[in-house]
Structures are given as C-alpha cells and as structure tokens.
Amino acid sequence: MRNRPIPEATVARLPIYLRALLEVAEGRGELTVSSEELANMAGVNAAKVRKDLSYLGSYGTRGVGYDVEYLLYQITRELGLTQDWPAAIIGVGNLGRALASYKGFSERGFRIAAIFDVDEAVIGTEIGGLPIRHLDELKEAVVDEGISIGIIATPPSAAQEVAEKLVDAGVKSILNFAPAVVNVPPDVSVRKVDLSIELQILSFYQQRTQAIATAREANRRLAVQPKGLER
Amino acid sequence: MRNRPIPEATVARLPIYLRALLEVAEGRGELTVSSEELANMAGVNAAKVRKDLSYLGSYGTRGVGYDVEYLLYQITRELGLTQDWPAAIIGVGNLGRALASYKGFSERGFRIAAIFDVDEAVIGTEIGGLPIRHLDELKEAVVDEGISIGIIATPPSAAQEVAEKLVDAGVKSILNFAPAVVNVPPDVSVRKVDLSIELQILSFYQQRTQAIATAREANRRLAVQPKGLER
DNA sequence: GAGACTTTGTGATTGCTCTCACAAGGCTAG
DNA sequence: CTAGCCTTGTGAGAGCAATCACAAAGTCTC
After folding, report:
1. pTM score > 0.70 for this model?
2. How far apart are CA A45 and CA A42, in angstroms?
C-alpha cells in the first residue's frame, strides 16, 4: 500500500482527520485513538479511515489503535504543512476582507502575506496591518515574499485575468472564490469555492423532498396508492 | 433516461451550467448553444454535459444544440429556484458579516431573511438593514419568516449546538462554514465549506510537485537515472 | 504461555462516475 | 427528395471510490 499514489478522495479527507487528531491531542490526554473514534469525529466510517491512513503507511498498532502524536506528525508532513506557504489575496470586497482577517487560516498555519486590488481608493489602506497593494506589483511581491498560493476574491469578470497574472508570477496553487471558471496550465492546481452553488445544491434536495411530500399529500387526499413517487 | 434519479455529481454541476447559460443569454443574442460550447464555459467535457442534461429530459435538438431560454428554465425549475428559499445566518464574526452582505447570494435569488448571534454587544445592531437577533428567537423567526436554509458561521465549538437548534426549528438544509463536523438526522441536508481545508489540499499537491522537482534535481546532480520518481 | 479479546491492514466486491464512440435524428442545399 | 453535415442521446467499458469482511498481529488476564 505504501508508495502507491494517494487517491484524491483520501487527500481531501486528510485535513479532516488532522483536525480530529488535534482535538484528541489537546482535549483529554489520550495517547492513542482507534479508527472507530476517528471515524466518529470525522463523520465517516471506520473502514474508510483505515484505508485512507494505510496509504500513508502502517502507522497503527493492531489491538491498540494509532499513536496520536505520531499520526499527527505523519499527516502534517504528508500534507506539506511542515513548511509554510505564504498566500496572497486578490480583491478586497466583502469576501476578500473577511478572508484577510479570517482566523481559521492562521490557526492552520497559513499566513496571508500580501493583499492586492486595482481600486485606487483602497490601495495604501491596511487590513490587519497589511497594506493593500496594486495588482501590478503582484509578480514582484510573489518573488520577494515567496508567495505560493493565490486566493482570488474578485468579481467573476476579473477572475480569469487575475489567474493568468498569478500563473505568470509563478504561483502554482490557486483558490478561487469568484463564481467563474478559470483556465490554467496543467501544472497549476485550482480549487474553487462557490458559495451560491452550495445553496443551489441545497435547494435541489429541499425542493425534491418537498415535491415528494406534496405528491404524497395529494395521493392521500385522493385515497389512491402512491405511484412510485418516493423513489 | 428521464425519471431516473439524478446523480449527485450531476446535481453539483447543474448550477455551473446555469451560470454558463445566463452568460450566453445575457451576452450575445445566441438562441441556441451546443454541448461543446457549454462544456468550454463550464470547464468540463462535452459528453459529460450531454449526459448530465439527458437526466433532465431530451431538451436538445440534434444538429442544432440546446435552446438557451428553454434549458435555462428547465435547470432553474429542476434546482427548485423558481421559488425562493429565505436563509438565516447564525454567527456574525468576519465571515458571517461578509456572507450577510455577499452579493452573490442575492444575484442567484437567495435572500438572507434573518441574522442571529448570542453576543449581547452586537444584538440589535444592523447589517445591511437587517437587525441581528438573539439565537433564542431562532425557532420563532424560522416559522414567521419561512426560513428554510440555515447558514452556520460560528466558531467550531458552537456549530453542533446551532445545527441542533436549526433542526429543532424545522430547517432541513444547512450550509456549514464552521470547521467542525455536524451531525443531523437523515432527513436534513448539510453541505460544508471549509476554507482552510481547501488550502491544505492545495498544500498537498504543491508539496508533492516540489518534492518531485527536488528529487529530480538531486538525481541530475548525481548524474544517476531517476528511479520512477516522476510518477 | 495459552486463550480471549481488540483493532489494524487489505483483498474482494459493489457501486458510482467519467469517457468513448457511434447510431439516430434533424437541418441545409441543390 | 436526396445527400451531406452537424449535434444529440446513450449503451458499453474503463477507472475510481466506498464498503465488506476477515486474517493477521498485537494486548491483557490468569
């Protein structure tokens, strides 16, 4: 199992296990944790936890569980969190501002190293001690500050252009909050977070259950057997 | 294909097609669009677009493409966006505030109908014209305002408790921004957005490519053949 | 040190998603 | 009305991901 490539789905869960392990480590002084406990905390099932962890190597002890500290270290290392990856935020609307002062980033070891915009009215002002700089200075800043992650928080119309500037500056990892698709070369990773898409997905499932309830109700009133609508 | 249940993966892409279609409709006056064009705009391949749309029904015309307006309507209807789903935000830290005034929600037809917190210092103050109310009023507000979506933007320690209050008030759809797992009954949908998890995933891939580059470099210097490290 | 108990690690299986490739259907031109 | 062209809709197959279930390996008790 060791040395096999780690599946994407597993990578996406490692940060969740990491959070659960931190909770165990800081909370009660448990030295080990079982896949069952981890699974409960992470909201997945135990077999998945074991399979996921087995991609990293055999770090558990049968009959006992996983050593909390050791596993914490291994996951941290695997995720590349032993070094820091300074990030830049581009766009200081509501969202950009909130991200710039979001404590969750610093708590997890991510440091916002620079903030950019193109609006002269905000350039020079500060957010949390960091000056807002003009987007034209991006490349220079990326080199000087060793920025490796770009966070796009612009309106959708600017997203592609900003992405290209990030790529041109040498950034290989982009987190895109703008509701727009951005195209980048294959050696650059993009992840997107689209807040209203999440609501639309919720809407779909809500609408569906409501439609079923309505249909059931109609059937009940007509005193007719439902015709496969619950499926 | 019609009447078969729509796969989750497809549901998650419908909002992206919707966005692309709106762009086509508002931009140039094209009346139809091909799966190829839609695929480019959505950043997926054409076969996937066609298969996804085929779950909704046969709304295309061979040799021509899809009627933009008609398809827009069908996707909107399927996603349940013909009715509105008032949402409540719980927690007014940086993120909660940003979400409360995030334009993307209103642009997509989602209305924030109420905002809650437990901090007496902020209760009674307003965000974008809406008063911040005490969490104890949640149930009452859900009934009165017909709130159907709860957006959790609290610290992680409060997330589970807030989720339970939402469920108790009758909310069936929850969007969770707190970095914590929340457990709810099976008839409630939860989607989570965890900003630092996204960065950690980016970190994994960045670290990996960097590790490979370093190993290649080491091999080059030693004038030895790489041993399968590029895979 | 033997037997009962616990928990991991993983082959095997099942299910879901993506991609391919092409027949079917519809339009256009002459 | 026919031939050629275009684009959809979908069966078939490949590839991932989740789950099951159990042997292997460790601890604990007496």
Report:
1. yes
2. 8
